[in-house]
């Protein structure tokens, strides 16, 4: 009876499906990487990858550093890289940063800033068209990746319920050679049958946690005791972050939750049960409440 109950646990079903998707991606795509935003969703996905491959992540992680991330996020990233012995690649749009052509510098809009520091930086990093950096565990620091090559498959931790454009994604979602997303050209996915063979020069995004909800993610974090960046929890000021991004465009929410269990209760029946997760992300509002314009051009 206990085994039957376990098999019927929604978290176990989601976990099994995600692990299956991760293994399928690893089998079908030789040049595979995983985007890690340092947020809860991609960290759960990273944890699932370690589970799928018996404690080892057999592909590199990729982080696009806008240089406007909250400092605790970068500290958490690098500590996890050390603790879990991860392959970590970091890319950025150094030209825009050097020229101060960013929203925080007052030169461009939030959306244009996202397009440069996130979408374009991601495209160039995946294609190895600009310098990118890799963590050297022997030196305990980042160095220029001298053996950089392009990625054809990229795993991303997006969820369909997070915002409107993400609900149109597939588990295996093709992009063209310019990393652009044509929503109407995606293959159907019926009865857990996935298209994994694509024409040459097709860039494919893989979404192992697409059907997870925010509540599922926090229930899983609670169950598995996954370490999270401290920004998700109240540190005594009566606020915490619900969604993480660049500090000029991301605001904390009023909450006294200090543990995953308390966040689960907030999501089930508390103040956030009817409030959108990304309501504190300013670039969403500037894009008319969604991110489809950015995502069609390669945004994560």
- Output the CATH class name of the largest domain: Alpha Beta
Helix fraction bin: 25-40%
Terminus-to-terminus distance: 42 Å
Mean of residue pLDDT values: 86
Output the strand order for the largest sheet.
5-4-3-2-1-6-8-7
CATH architectural grouping of the largest domain: 3-Layer(aba) Sandwich
For this structure, the CATH topology of the largest domain is Rossmann fold
Strand content: 5-15%
Helix and strand composition category: alpha/beta
CA-based shape: globular
Number of domains: 2
CATH superfamily caption of the largest domain? HUPs
Largest sheet: 8 strands, mixed
Observed structural traits:
eight-stranded mixed beta sheet, 300 residues, alpha/beta, single chain, globular, 2 domains, 10 helices, disordered N terminus, two-stranded antiparallel ribbon, Rossmann fold
Break the fold down into its secondary structure elements and pairings.
Layout: H1 2-7, H2 10-28, E1 32-35, H3 40-52, E2 61-64, H4 71-83, E3 88-91, H5 94-98, H6 110-127, E4 133-136, E5 141-144, E6 153-155, E7 172-175, E8 203-206, H7 214-224, E9 239-240, E10 253-254, H8 260-269, H9 282-286, H10 292-296
Parallel strand pairs: 1-2, 1-6, 2-3, 6-8
Antiparallel strand pairs: 3-4, 4-5, 7-8, 9-10
Helix pairs in contact: 2-3, 7-8
